[in-house]
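Hi support team,

I've been running sequence recovery on a batch of backbones for a student project. Most finish fine, but this one hangs at about 90% for roughly twenty minutes before it completes. I'm not sure whether the input is malformed or the queue is just slow. I've pasted the structure tokens below so you can try to reproduce it. Let me know if you need the job ID as well.

Thanks,
M.K.
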């Protein structure tokens, strides 16, 4: 195999990661759900979806009117029908007022709900559970504030093996290729979760579309984000680092497992005092403590 071919194949995992990032949808999704923004499973994510759809249909309405007038003009005022260009320019103050007021009204009607939603998105007060999230090259360190539970979460062994050059493992044979981890972030449904997000090296971004959360992890700075998963939406939700952060940027996924409060309490009790840093990599764990 030539050097050029080997270099091209070496880029395949990154390309596949980009494809996976654009296709992070549940297996049951189809049609419109595959190309549109996901509704998500939190109150904020559903509001974001509603705002997105409102803006979409406003744009569709504007396009119909504008292109409709253009097409009508092309059909009924073409030269073959005897249309003669009017070389005299006319001025209509009323028309100018209308085409100024209408866009302003549209923009304001969209800006008000958008501003309200931004306030809601950034409301991180009164959380029922706080989790410290620390990004590093290339994984995530989680610590449940107020407990002794902490662990490193990195790309699962199966995905990591398949991504290696000349591994001989087909990515299609690996469930959730590049979107699976060795240790999932476990959270309870129906409770407000606050994330305290930072980084120990470069800028990362914690992004899970179904939760409506995308927040930068910046060294020396703590960003906050919060979400509440609907009580009837337990399950597994996947995301990725959304900030180009280095060689293995494409290989630091995020997996959140939402369980009932009772199951979460049992999970916390089971893992108290049993951090998994050593299992996930002592070097990465040491980096998060700096």
């Amino acid at each position: 195999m030539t050097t050029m071919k080997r270099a091209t194949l070496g880029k395949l995992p990154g390309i596949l990661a980009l494809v996976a990032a654009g296709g992070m949808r549940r297996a049951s999704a189809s049609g419109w759900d595959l190309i549109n923004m996901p509704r998500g499973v939190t109150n904020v994510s559903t509001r974001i979806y509603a705002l997105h759809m409102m803006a979409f249909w406003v744009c569709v309405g504007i396009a119909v009117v504008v292109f409709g007038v253009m097409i009508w003009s092309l059909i009924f005022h073409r030269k073959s029908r005897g249309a003669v260009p009017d070389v005299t320019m006319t001025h209509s103050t009323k028309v100018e007022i209308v085409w100024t007021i209408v866009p302003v009204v549209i923009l304001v009607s969209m800006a008000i709900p958008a501003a309200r939603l931004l306030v809601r998105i950034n409301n991180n007060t009164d959380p029922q559970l706080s989790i410290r999230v620390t990004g590093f090259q290339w994984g995530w360190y989680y610590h449940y504030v107020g407990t002794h539970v902490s662990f490193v979460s990195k790309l699962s062994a199966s995905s990591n093996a398949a991504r290696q050059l000349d591994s001989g493992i087909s990515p299609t044979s690996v469930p959730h290729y590049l979107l699976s981890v060795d240790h999932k972030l476990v959270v309870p449904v129906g409770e407000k979760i606050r994330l305290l997000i930072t980084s120990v090296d470069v800028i990362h971004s914690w992004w899970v579309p179904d939760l409506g959360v995308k927040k930068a992890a910046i060294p020396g700075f703590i960003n906050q984000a919060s979400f509440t998963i609907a009580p009837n939406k337990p399950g597994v939700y996947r995301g990725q680092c959304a900030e180009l952060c280095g060689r293995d940027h494409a290989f630091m996924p995020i997996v959140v497992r939402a369980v009932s409060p009772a199951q979460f309490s049992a999970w916390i009790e089971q893992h108290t005092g049993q951090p998994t840093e050593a299992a996930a990599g002592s070097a990465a764990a040491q980096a998060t403590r700096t």
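--
Follow-up from support: It reproduced on our side and the slowdown came from queue contention, not your input. The chain has two domains: 43-121, 129-288. No action needed from you.
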